[in-house]
Prior knowledge:
With 174 residues, this protein is of the alpha+beta class. The protein has helices spanning 28-43, 135-148, 166-172; strands spanning 48-50, 60-63, 80-90, 94-99, 107-114, 116-122, 128-134, 163-165. It has one domain (13-172): Alpha-Beta Complex (Peptide Deformylase).
Amino acid sequence: MAKLLEIAQLGNPILRQVARPVENINAPSIQKLIDFLMSTVSSANGVGIAAPQVSQSYRLFIVASRPNSRYPNAPLMKPLVIINPKITGHSEEMVKGWEGCLSIPGIRGLVPRYRTIEVEYLSVDGTLHRQEFTDFVARIFQHELDHLNGIVFVDRLETTLDMFTEQEYQKLNK
Length: 174
């Protein structure tokens, strides 16, 4: 198993910086970072993780939706490596849904996001992908893309009344 990386916590300046594009996907340091991100997101029971969350300023994240203790109803999918992503279109409809963040432990929030997004990104082998994501996977993508732009989910809350501790969130969802 690849090394686990320390997850930057809210207050760390890297979480508020715009990440730089990945120039050379095949660089050993980038390939190693991808392996470390995969291990770290799995170990932390996350459904996504962005390079800035492990103190690496690159436009790179993993979408790894799967049921786990933090997201028991998450759909199961093969983890995707997303490099230099952008949203190219989105639905008019926005929906509020629960989010947490490995960089903000103990807090959940009801965050408005586009239900459907159209995206472009490079995969681990440098192939350009154009894809549509909906619902929970679209939410993960938007959450992780925010990390690349120095935004965390609490910035997206419409009101602080939409913020809950993890304990209160768990009581709601039993």
